[in-house]
Amino acid sequence: MENSAANSELFKEEIETRDKIIVKTSIIGIVTNILLAAFKAAIGLLSNSIAVILDAVNNLSDVLSSVITIAGTKLANRQPDKAHPLGHGRIEYMSAMLVSAIVLYAGITAAVESVKRIIHPEAVNYSVISLIIIAVAVAVKFVLGKYVKHNGKKAKSSALIASGTDALFDAVLSASVLASAIIYFTAKISLEAYVGIIISVMIIKAGIKMMTETLSDILGKRADSGTCKTIKKLLMEEPEVRGAYDLIIHNYGPNKNLASVHLELPDIMTVAQVDTLTRKLQTKVYHKTGVILAGVGVYSFNAQNDEAAKIRNMIQEKVMAYDWVLQMHGFYLDMPAKQIRMDVVMSFDICFDEGLEILNKELSQLCPEYKIHINPDVDISD
Question: How confident is the model at residue 279 (pLDDT cuts 50, 70, 90)?
């Protein structure tokens, strides 16, 4: 119990450290972007440059994104309540969705303004000082992007990673603004509006990508392969466990994961033995990965029946011959009842009903004296 309490306290400290990283990084981003927006807006207005003005607006949208990231992090860490017993972690995904919507809106607005400037061109007027300020802004934005993205990965914050990626992207866009300004300053060729179009397209593309990735988190995507392999390895370390299957990880926000799994155990184990093993595994998985193993189902295998092993090998060879069958597990032969039970994992290349019909027909011919029960499984984890 002492070890469990110590690990729980350590996990709590990790969450608090994560929040501090997100808030501190976001505040630095807010201050930096406000300063950059102010300088760029002044240069844009003085030189009558639509590209620089749009770049300033983009910095202001980054400020709003950082504010939303902080608010989302704070709300996501509210304690569970009766209405939300699993906590409020998914609010952070909603904040990431808002950030992507802001980026998308900024891109569309930039495109509209750039098209207007192409239709009704206006003269621009850069100075050497303005070019220097823009160059410094590019360098600052690049450093900020690297810093934010690094801390986002460190804190495992999708919103922070998105902000960092967006900042790095902004540095490239600002560099294109600088390039167009230098071209106009030296050759008197105005590319302002066209550079604005390029900037807006890239911003829109980034916004759509961020929104798609966040939607994937909200809808529920395939669990991380590394985490799945780690959990299965931990489960398989126990001598009683012959297989770990159907691992499902439900995400309720960053670092808030609940999982369920089926274990293949010998049919000679008692309920008391299974209970002891289950509790041991739940503790081990949580301590090693932070994932709560909320549900453990059981498949029994014939531990003392050589005939069952022969039939299993024969059936497995027949079933695995189909390229749309990914795995067979949970096999159990009940000789007195003349029944065979198993799970078959099918790929998304075939309709489950069609696959079941084919397998039932094949196995009924192979083992006519047994009633076959096949449970189709979805390919949900590696």
Answer: very high
